[in-house]
Design a protein that fits this description.
The protein is of the alpha/beta class. About 40% of the residues lie in helices and about 20% in strands.
Length: about 290
């Protein structure tokens, strides 16, 4: 059956695949060390799943995950971050997760900004901090440029296509994930990129199932924001780069970020890789984020 543009996304290879994904998703969420509420927020694009935790009287912090990682990936961060903030961890529209993209297609970064505007309006968030990893970092930066009056502070974790491109070797390694996605290929790719780091096995199972069985909406290819926009941004920004990343040339990325956003704080986590953020060595990452946001 050919799906229309308004069909529910993400779609699944079969009902059994959807059941496997749901079980794996819930297993990661069960690892969150503090109580969490799941809410579904309507918008013109569809229904967004948001996981909310932390004290209600703390300032809000919006978390945007990397592609395919789902909002559950913040299990190693929410306890520490949740002492200082009311956390809103979002399943991105059209990606693997519990959000349902059954409205108009998302074709450009402006559509994502409109989606986030509607989401935050519904949640009653007027001004808040935003932290995004990888593709979520690109979404976060574009939203901060779109609505600087709403973003009180911005944290970018090894962001994709914000200050530089992706290494050719990384892109070539990723080709099989798009040409013929399987769980084992995702596991092999993550083992290569992380240098065999001990990723959480429960989350790794979810990532493998998401690669093999989830059919997300068509991807909006990220484009670097205009240099002129970055230079005039007044949003306090922390750029945290993964020193051992195989996705980026970190030295070049750090230079470019400092040149384009001279008011930003740019730091490198020496042992981190692109895909060990945010779950491995989370205490150091959490400390850097909290010091900046404080």
């Amino acid at each position: 059956m050919v799906e229309s543009s308004r069909a529910r996304r993400p779609a699944f290879a079969s009902p059994a695949a959807e059941a496997r994904f749901t079980t794996a998703y819930d297993a990661v969420l069960d690892q969150w060390p503090i109580p969490v509420d799941a809410i579904d927020v309507p918008s013109r694009f569809g229904r967004t799943r948001v996981h909310v935790c932390g004290p209600v009287d703390r300032p809000p912090l919006l978390l945007l995950h990397g592609a395919g990682a789902t909002s559950t990936v913040w299990f190693a961060n929410v306890e520490e971050l949740g002492r200082a903030f009311r956390i809103y961890a979002v399943d991105q529209m059209g990606d693997a997760g519990r959000s349902a993209h059954d409205g108009p297609p998302i074709r450009r970064s402006d559509d994502y900004s409109t989606w986030l505007d509607e989401l935050c309006d519904h949640l009653g968030l007027e001004a808040f901090a935003v932290c995004g990893h990888s593709y979520g970092g690109w979404l976060a930066l574009n939203f901060a440029l779109h609505a600087p009056h709403r973003v009180s502070a911005l944290v970018l974790l090894d962001p994709t296509s914000c200050f530089g491109g992706i290494r050719l070797g990384y892109r070539l390694r990723a080709v099989p994930l798009f040409a013929c996605p399987t769980g084992q290929r995702m596991r092999n790719f993550l083992r290569w990129e992380t240098g065999g780091a001990a990723l959480d096995p429960v989350w790794l199972e979810l990532a493998a199932i998401a690669c093999a069985d989830v059919r997300p909406s068509p991807v909006v290819l990220p484009r670097r924001p205009a240099a002129a926009q970055l230079r005039v941004s007044t949003v306090p920004t922390l750029v945290l780069l993964a020193g051992a990343s195989r996705q980026h040339d970190i030295a070049r990325l750090a230079r470019t970020a400092r040149n384009l956003m001279p008011a930003a704080t740019v730091a490198v986590l020496p042992r981190a890789t692109h895909h060990t953020i945010p779950t491995v060595d989370a205490a150091r990452l959490n400390g850097e984020v909290l010091r900046f946001l404080a």
